[in-house]
Design goal:
It is a single chain. The chain is of the alpha+beta class. The chain contains 15 helices and 16 strands. It has a nine-stranded mixed beta sheet with strand order 2-6-7-10-1-11-12-13-14. Strands 5-4-15 form a three-stranded antiparallel beta sheet, with no helix packed on it. A two-stranded antiparallel sheet has the order 3-16. The termini are far apart. Bound molecules: zinc ion and manganese (II) ion. The site of zinc ion has 8 residues, from loops.
Length: 486
């Protein structure tokens, strides 16, 4: 049996987080709430006689992305017309960049269980988005609706080299790129809303063969799960085709989540089908070195730097670092906690955050922005557990209550009378009572130590309504039992 090498190149389109469109003053609106065709003008509707004007902020964001990817930014880049007809593209062409893109030759480091790896970025260019079609099944047959709110929204296209050789690497590349782009604030990266769209160019070749195989392009990868499933499916298809001695057909495929398979969208056109030529209505885009330097100086801490800082400054485990940095809002919350409660160890904060807080977010499909409590309220709770005002288990209940009501830990503890019992005499009394009530168990303690100890501990905690200091109960209980032995 032949071994095959998988070669994947990723093409990513992301909508830049500008307020207005790429070539006109129309607002960029939320597709889920805006009325169709409410943010349009003659320019983005493609009416004859209109002229495009370049959005400076879109260029700045694109440069930011290019610098984060270590690309070389071209002093001069050229906009070009990519000609094709489609009902969501009223001009009959998309303004893009072709022969002279904004930036080239970048790279992105990814992490998989196989280790770290650098994926080269071939190019990064600016273009405009198309409108959106909605296909409707009506009573008299099917028809399509056109919404041009999205037409002309600034897009950044990032094309990698085919350096990705496994499905794990493809997903890691997608996640790392999304994290990086969100960290530097160039896009919301919302895949469900189509703000960030991934396409994989996949081909396979027999081991030892130098030349890349025929590629298929897989679109509609709206989540990393979809990406993984689509690629697993397509790798299997290509392997079968090649093993049967057949040729792979170059084509564009869409991933159909409900069918669990890819479906053919069109046989793939080549670049020369688009009849690219320089856009005559726009001047060359010239970027001065001073502008590049200015943007370079404004860059925030990169995910890689943050990970290293968390490891070195706080001594965190790789796994905790990974979870804390996978989402910029987690890292922000963590740092706010550290600043608010310098007495708590970072590890203590992380334990509470990663287990209880994030679990609550996931269970309720919420994000950090929806959190009903402040980082200060959160660290206040942890401090109450640390200084033994309440015990760990009560603390977890209180946090749950805080998250559902938005109340502070102090309020909840007072309302529900949850203060931890650390009074030695009181605990001793409760233990004595439990031991009196359970003479048989006390007898068998001397033969089945661990189990009985555990059981008696439970009885005492029950008597204390869960509020006793568990450490103290354990100590005193052991003392009392050992006394009884003599
Ligand atoms: Zn417009
Ligand atoms: Mn494109």
């Amino acid at each position: 049996m032949t071994n095959y090498i998988i070669d994947i190149g990723m093409e990513v389109h992301l909508e830049l987080a500008t307020r207005s469109k790429m070539f006109c003053g129309c607002a960029v609106v939320d597709p889920t709430t805006a009325k169709p065709n409410s943010a349009v003008c003659p320019v983005c509707c493609g009416l004859p006689g209109t002229l495009p004007v370049i959005n400076k902020n879109a260029v700045a964001l694109a440069m930011r992305a290019a610098l984060a990817l270590d690309c070389q930014i071209a002093h001069t880049s050229i906009f070009a017309r990519k000609n094709y007809f489609y009902p969501d593209l009223p001009k009959g062409y998309q303004i893009s960049q072709y022969e002279q893109p904004l930036a080239v030759n970048g790279s992105l480091m990814i992490h998989t269980c196989q280790g770290d790896k650098v994926i080269r970025v071939h190019r990064t260019h600016l273009e405009e988005d198309t409108g959106k079609l909605t296909h409707v099944e009506g009573e008299d047959g099917s028809y399509s609706l056109v919404d041009l709110n999205r037409a002309g929204v600034p897009l950044l296209e990032i094309v990698s080299e085919p350096d990705i050789h496994s499905i794990d690497e493809a997903v890691a590349y997608g996640k790392e790129l999304r994290l990086l782009m969100r960290t530097i604030g160039v896009t919301s990266g919302d895949m469900e809303k189509g703000t960030m769209r991934f396409e994989a160019n996949l081909s396979m070749r027999a081991e030892g063969c130098q030349e890349l195989g025929t590629r298929v392009e897989v679109k509609n990868l709206n989540s990393f799960r979809a990406m993984e499933q689509a690629l697993i499916y397509q790798v299997e298809q290509q392997r079968k085709t090649l093993e049967q001695g057949k040729k792979v057909t170059q084509q564009t495929l869409g991933w159909d989540e409900s069918l669990g398979k890819t479906t053919s969208q069109r046989s793939k056109e080549n670049a020369n089908d688009y009849r690219y030529f320089p856009e005559p209505d726009l001047p060359p885009l010239i970027v001065e070195d001073s502008w590049v330097a200015e943007i370079r100086d404004s860059m925030p801490e990169m995910p890689e730097e943050k990970r290293a800082r968390y490891r070195d400054t706080y001594g965190l485990q790789a796994e905790d670092v990974e979870r804390l940095t996978e989402e910029p809002s987690y890292a922000d919350f963590f740092e706010a906690c550290i600043a608010a409660a310098p007495k708590l160890t970072p590890q203590r904060i992380i334990n509470w955050m990663l287990t209880d807080l994030l679990a609550w977010l996931h269970q309720n499909s919420k994000t950090m922005a929806d959190l009903p409590i402040s980082h200060k309220a959160f660290t206040d709770l942890i401090e109450l557990v640390e200084n033994s005002t309440i015990n760990q288990n009560t603390g977890k209940d209180v946090l749950g209550e805080m998250l559902s009501t938005g109340q502070s830990a102090g309020e909840i503890i007072e309302e529900r009378d949850l203060l931890q019992i650390s009074d030695h005499t009181l605990i001793e009394e409760m233990i004595e009572a439990v031991l009196e009530e359970n003479p048989d168990e006390v007898q068998s303690y001397f033969t089945r130590k661990e189990t009985i100890m555990h059981w008696l501990f439970g009885q005492v905690m029950r008597k204390a309504k869960g509020k006793a200091n568990p450490q103290l109960v354990k100590e005193v209980l052991k003392e009392k039992l050992d006394q009884r032995r003599h």
